[in-house]
Write a structure and sequence with these properties.
105 residues, alpha+beta, CBS-domain, 3-stranded mixed sheet, 4 helices
Length: 105
Amino acid sequence: MVYTVKDFMTKNIYTIDCNATVAEASKIMLEKNVGYLIVLEGGKPAGMVSERDIVFKVVALEKDPSNVKVGEIMSKPLITIDPDATISEAIDIMVKNGIRRIPVV
């Protein structure tokens, strides 16, 4: 049996505007118990911000999360995958792009 992305994907996806602060993003992640948010620019997906982005691009550099916009630290471009793609295809894309998460569209 060949497994597809839709067999394993998370269906609850949370978003945040690119002009929101990292502090706001952190609160949403905590409340929703998630490790990433899809970042919207003009209402459209533009990137992703993760706990890792916050740690390496804000906390480690001693920046104030209330003064840093999510759009400044988001990972981009947003690499996505089709729900009918195989798990093998998803792994290949993730390895080639050095990413840990891949939104399904």
